[in-house]
Amino acid sequence: MLSNLLNSVILIVDDSDAARYARSRILIRAGFKVIEAATGNMALTMARENHPDLVLLDTKLPDINGMDVCRKLKSDPETKAILVLQTSASYIGVADKIRALEGGADNYLFEPIEPEELVANVKALLRLAIVERELRDVDRRKDEFLATLAHELRNPLGPIRSSVELLCKLEPVVPEAQDRARKTIARHTDHLVRLVDDLLDVARISQGKITLHQERVELKSAVANARESVAGIIESRRHTLNVSLPENDVWIKGDHVRMCQIIGNLLHNAAKFTPPGGVVGLDLKVEDDEAVLRISDNGIGLEEANIDFIFGLFAQDGHARDRVQDGLGIGLSLVRSLVALHDGTVTATSPGLGKGSVFEVRLPAYPYDRSNDEKALDPKQGTAATRILVVDDNADAANTLAELLGIDGHDVITAYSGREALARAADFHPRFVFLDIGLPDMTGYEVAAQMRKLPGMDTAVLIALTGYGQARDRELAMDAGFDEHVVKPIDFAKVTSLNLHTR
């Protein structure tokens, strides 16, 4: 770290030639590189051109007040990371010091400044800056690792999930033992997918990168989707799930996918910490102007003193560390963050250990007349076979998806590279193309751009397949000309929702 400090560049800003000379000599003797400016405008120009690590900035300058210079530095994306040590030849008052610090100064010193004090303050600020840069670098590498991990996990999970779907379609009726084996594989595959998605979502939220796709959301339909997502764990643990829904629809303004995730995580949490054969309850109602969702169980319960703790990241309160079903401890933290993004609240109550728990979500209700909705397309309408091209360098993934689509009545071919995909598209003229982004010879983006130029392919529906599910990845896909963006492993129900027969 010492070597990093001594490589630092200090910009001294003072209209006094004598003051600049004195401070330059002090800092040069201490091992720093020094550049100088006599005015505020010169300081701003030199900061943008030289990118110093720290600016030693006098308050009184002939053209621009030093505090204004500091604010300009901190508001400019090119210079905002530069440290500013504000100085003044006279004591100007605590209020002015506070104003300087609130304006972006990292520290404030009054004259006279002893040489040792100046050097010590400069070194202290630089040490903090180095630590901050290292932390930002670690955070960046963490994000890259999580994205890569998700991609590498999703790639093998895709053909596993598709293979189970294929087995169920090829042979719907099988012996009980075989059916149990299929359900076990499907259940644990879905669990792995859930863990990967939760990890990435936590990372996105911590960076402020989650944005809600705001729309009118009917909560009864979200409950139905969430129930389906936890059916495996409910069945495997032999729980009774009691659901109470109001007669009328319950509308909110929010993100349908995220609401399904909130409800699913709460149901999954209740099932996970309720002993086999227990009871999980879900109650939905409208109270005043709020939609209220309560998830209850007769499980292991919570200690009152630690209730707030369970919403923390990686919290495992009250659960043995060696219990595999405890998971990563991120589900409830994610719920709290997602509910907050919907302007709602989530709370937990429990009579005590061994007496069950109740989780309550409150969201602003949204009055909405469903009668104005356009009539939904009947999925049974239009059953004509559709030409589909599936492109993936993972042959298992491509073949299983192709077979699933074939069973659904479509005319499907495969390709395992970008060049092969272009050649087959030119001959086959597919209506839909499921196109992997990570191909060995060219990227999916490049393939999509060239495929659009082929005769008859300008109106084809291109669906990006990728293990990367960040918002930026979707943006890249849309910018490259894709119509849809699907994250691996593919949920065949989502594929079906694309209305392949009717588009």
Describe, in plain words, how this protein is organized in 3D.
It is a single chain. With 503 residues, the protein is α/β, with parallel strands linked by helices. The protein folds into three domains: 2-113, Response regulator (Rossmann fold); 143-210 and 379-503, 3-Layer(aba) Sandwich (Rossmann fold), CATH 3.40.50; 215-371, Heat Shock Protein 90 (2-Layer Sandwich), CATH 3.30.565. It has helices at residues 2-6, 17-29, 40-50, 66-75, 94-102, 115-170, 176-206, 219-229, 231-236, 256-272, 331-341, 395-407, 418-428, 444-452, 471-479, 492-496, and strands spanning 9-13, 33-37, 54-58, 83-88, 107-110, 215-218, 240-244, 251-254, 279-287, 290-297, 345-349, 357-364, 387-391, 411-415, 432-436, 461-466, 484-487. The strands form four sheets. It has a five-stranded parallel sheet with strand order 2-1-3-4-5, sandwiched between helices. The chain is globular and about 90 Å long.
* Quaternary status: single chain
Task: Characterize the largest beta sheet: strand count, sense, and whether it forms a barrel.
Answer: 5 strands, parallel
Number of E strands: 17
Count of structural domains? 3
The proportion of strand residues reads 15-25%
Indicate the low-confidence ranges by residue numbers: 317-326, 370-383
Shape: globular
CATH architecture of the largest domain: 3-Layer(aba) Sandwich
Strand-pairing-aware structural class: alpha/beta
Task: Note the total helix count.
Answer: 16
CATH fold title of the largest domain: Rossmann fold
**Mean of all residue-level pLDDT scores:** 82
- Give the termini distance in whole angstroms: 61 Å
CATH hierarchy, class of the largest domain: Alpha Beta
According to CATH, the homologous superfamily of the largest domain is Response regulator
**Radius of gyration from the CA trace?**
30 Å
Helical amount: 40-55%
Largest sheet: spatial strand order: 2-1-3-4-5
